[in-house]
Specification:
alpha+beta; 4-stranded antiparallel sheet; 5 helices; 17 strands; about 20% helix; binds 2-oxoglutaric acid
Length: about 280
């Protein structure tokens, strides 16, 4: 397994806003996490007692019950194997190198499960506009699949360089209805780059990721993923990391009720639900 991102990989991330950094888990680790994930998926959204460790939420997004995308937030709170994963030394060190931040915390994690044959669409979006509770928009996420994710089973698509164009969530919402199938994700409406930039036809690229690899994306990178028509499931975990710049804005989010600092204060003391994974440059085990 690799120890650290190369300088070339960091440059690629800074240019594109995303990066496949290759394998970080052994097949034994992937198998352990996959069976943990299946155990928790099988419990269902109502399958946890109040007095046992449980994720923060377990819902299907998109409103199309025939085409679910199951999202489980903070599986790390319900599973020691996933708690170890959010502290993974390569992943945390890579986020340090990609953000330049010497202190990092988990904002939250999120399982993204598209069942075989029926998994639905994740519409084009940027992450940061969906996280109004924290500022500034400097988060970086690690995305780790437990099945090979490819165009057939609904891998993510991303637009290179889009993390440099600010908050464009309104433009992305206007793209929603046209994008359900894999091939539809290859094109978008024309877009004018802010601050006097030119008008372009954005060119999304498919981002296949094999099980056990890690893929990183910036919180302003445009991304989405189509239906899963394949006979294979597409299970993955996104871990969203905050940099030490993050402060609480007081605005609403699923995680806001757990935040124990006042509006305007650093998230560093926000509470146990936001674990510190890097302190003064060193990985926190
Ligand atoms: O797993 C997916 O298809 C979408 C994940 C996503 O939007 C994210 O990790 O920010």
């Amino acid at each position: 397994m690799q120890q650290r991102l190369s300088a070339q990989a960091v440059d690629q991330f800074k240019r594109d806003g995303f990066l496949n950094a290759g394998p970080v888990l052994s097949m034994a680790e992937v198998d352990e996490l996959s069976s943990e994930l299946d155990r928790i998926i099988a419990r269902g959204s109502d399958g946890f007692r109040e007095d046992e460790p449980r994720p923060v939420s377990y819902v299907s997004i998109g409103g199309d019950t025939d085409r679910p995308v199951w999202q489980i937030v903070n599986i790390w709170m319900a599973s020691p194997a996933f708690e170890r994963l959010i502290h993974h030394p390569f992943v945390v060190t890579a986020i340090r190198d990609l953000t330049g931040s010497q202190n990092l915390q988990v904002w939250h994690d999120q399982v993204q499960y598209k069942p075989a044959a029926s998994g639905g669409t994740t519409a084009w979006h940027q992450d940061a506009p969906y996280w109004p509770a924290i500022e500034p928009m400097t988060e970086v996420s690690a995305w780790i699949p437990f099945d090979d994710a490819d165009v057939e089973n609904g891998c993510m698509w991303m637009v290179p360089g889009s993390h440099l164009w600010g908050n464009q969530i309104d433009f992305l919402h206007r793209q929603r209805d046209q994008h359900k199938e894999g091939r539809d994700f290859a094109t978008m409406d024309e877009f004018t780059i802010p601050d006097g930039g030119k008008t372009i036809s954005p060119r999304p690229v498919a981002c296949p990721v094999r099980r056990g690899e890690v893929h990183f994306h910036h919180a302003l990178t445009w991304h989405g993923s189509p239906h899963n028509h394949s006979p294979r499931p597409r299970r993955a975990l996104a871990i969203h990391y905050m940099t030490s710049e993050a402060v609480f804005t007081g605005r609403n989010h699923l995680m806001s009720k757990y935040i124990k600092v006042a509006v305007g204060e650093s998230m560093i003391n926000a509470g146990a639900e936001f674990p510190l994974v890097l302190k003064e440059g060193a990985v926190v085990a």
